[in-house]
Amino acid sequence: YNYDRVISYNAFLNFLIGERGVGKTFGASEFVTRQFIKKGHEFVYLRRYSTELETAVPKFFDEIIENDEFPDHTFKIKKNKRLSTFMIDGKVAGYAVPLSTSVILKSTSFAKVRTIIFDEFIIDRGTYHYLTSECEKFLDLIETIGRLRDIRVFCLANAISISNPYFDYFNMTIPYNSEFKVCKRDKNGNPLIMINYIKNEKYRAAKRESRFGQLIDGTEYGTYAIDNEFLRDDSTFIEKRPSHCKQYSTINVNNHDYGVWRDHKNEMIYVSKDF
Fold first, then answer.
1. What gap in Å lies between CA 17 and CA 196, rounded to an integer?
2. pTM of the predicted structure, to 2 decimals
């Protein structure tokens, strides 16, 4: 996946939601590799748990090497009990960090790091679990790494569910009518948070023509794996509240008030931000 348009926004936090295999991780790894070779900028590859890094880190450079993207350079992974490193031409280019234990890195210097790649920031049910106060841990790590420097963060995920800690914490919504949406700006109007809801039609057409694509086409999994529709979300029990409803009560959840409305005509109950 080509990162040029994403980078052109120059946002601090970049959330990329795309179908499996479209090239999110490869594009990010290619970007940070090029940044190191040209400018000496280092990177951090972030996953939620160390067990995820055990399988992902050894493969980080595989596609770059296989596609012969940088034929004049050498790539190696140097494993360490505390912090594994990515080596390019014998020099440290990046670090592999698990978010779950990142608190122990507060005294570690990342002075040359300019990019963080947080891979698989949305997880599916029945696999791993989100961390307690995960978004605060994530922001704490960004501060540990970046300090006051203007770094760039890529958060990558498949379209699992819009109901996740990050969308809730930053009050984000998907740009359904386009690919890009700026969710927050700084005092000068520059993007702070940007969402890229990937729509690569050429890739989708190619995937749909593959034998596996033909197998899943028309299924619920197919709309997720090919069309980038959210796998665990649906619109059941979601509809506009009729104007004739009467408010029944107000409930407070995590210091937010919600109105509970009753429709006496069809005996439906609606929960709304209106109260």
1. 6
2. 0.81
